[in-house]
TrEMBL record:
Residues 152-281 form the Acyl-CoA thioesterase 2 C-terminal domain. Pfam families: 4HBT_3 (PF13622), Acyl_CoA_thio (PF02551). Residues 25-108 form the Acyl-CoA thioesterase-like N-terminal HotDog domain. This is Acyl-CoA thioesterase 2. Belongs to the C/M/P thioester hydrolase family. It comes from Methylobacterium iners. SUPFAM superfamilies: Thioesterase/thiol ester dehydrase-isomerase (SSF54637). The gene is tesB. It comes from the Bacteria. Keywords: Hydrolase.
Length: 289
């Protein structure tokens, strides 16, 4: 494997420092701050390395405390909160410059037999029916604003295909729902822990943008200051992060310069594999210059 997916797997392969302490780095791509999904994924990797593989993660709850510095390594310290008969709990704190920038709790549970149900997958066009962002660039952008097109067409380890792309073309309030197909840009190793970490990485993409659908705005607008504040992810069923997954998002509430969004994640065959919730800052900028 080569290229940007290989780099993602490399940054997820944390350096062990000592027992329950790990170090991660950021890709050298010129971002002003560390991507939140990277920190979530690296923290998950750190916690998972302290738990037997027979007990996979089922949920994580995280808080973004400070913006990360991409030029400096991130140190992850894992606290072994509980090792029970059925559940294992870990807490991870990420630090830079002697300060905590991120904190996350992760719970682990081996699969058991029991009742099961799920909501059906929304009826949306398949990913093959949607334009590839790079194809849109070659076609002259299709009228999509430059910042939006640059985001979706950027070379990244996660391929994104938004369903309701018209929201970027016609700025008008609409029902606060947004669907995006996503997958790893290359085939991943078989290890389920890698697929979980890659989905954790991808789960911070586009979700906060759903909080502005109802207002005819996007996080790409110069008039909006946006940042993830907290993030929760639940793993329901096995999945492959290198197969297409539908990120079905909605936003029940926004107010006080904060937006709340949630998402159900479905595999191609309609299986509900994960759920996500996030609150983020969507503050109007006082100075847009």
């Amino acid at each position: 494997m080569t290229g940007i997916v290989a780099e993602l797997l490399d940054i997820l392969d944390l350096e062990p420092l000592e027992i329950d302490r790990f170090r991660g780095r950021s890709p050298t791509i010129g971002w002003p701050r560390v991507f939140g999904g990277q920190v979530v994924a690296q923290a998950l990797v750190a916690a998972t390395r302290t738990v037997p593989a027979t007990r996979p993660p089922h949920s994580l709850h995280a808080y973004f405390l400070l913006g990360g510095d991409p030029k400096v390594p991130i140190d992850y310290e894992v606290e072994r909160i509980r090792d029970g008969g059925s559940f294992t709990t870990r807490r991870v704190v990420a630090q830079q410059h002697g300060r905590a920038i991120f904190a996350m709790s992760v719970s682990y549970h081996a699969s058991e037999a029991g009742v099961a149900h799920q909501l059906p997958m929304p009826d949306v066009p398949p990913p093959e029916a949607l334009p590839d962002a790079r194809a849109a660039v070659k076609a002259g952008g299709m009228g999509i604003p430059a910042p939006v097109l640059a985001y979706f067409a950027r070379e990244r380890p996660i391929e994104l295909r938004p369903v309701e792309v018209e929201r970027y073309l016609r700025r008008e309030p609409r029902e606060p729902r947004f669907h995006v197909w996503l997958r790893a840009a290359e085939i991943l190793p078989e290890d389920p822990a890698i697929h979980q970490a890659v989905l954790a990485y991808a789960s911070d993409m586009t979700l906060l943008d759903a909080t502005l659908v109802a207002h005819g705005q996007t996080v790409f607008d110069a008039s909006i200051q946006s940042a993830s504040l907290d993030h929760a992810l639940w793993f329901h069923r096995p999945f492959k992060a290198d197969d297409w997954l539908l990120y079905a998002q909605d936003s029940p509430s926004a107010g006080a310069a904060r937006g709340f969004a949630r998402s159900l994640i479905f595999s191609r065959d309609g299986t509900l594999v994960a759920s996500v919730a996030q609150e983020g800052l969507i503050r109007p900028r006082r100075d847009t210059a």
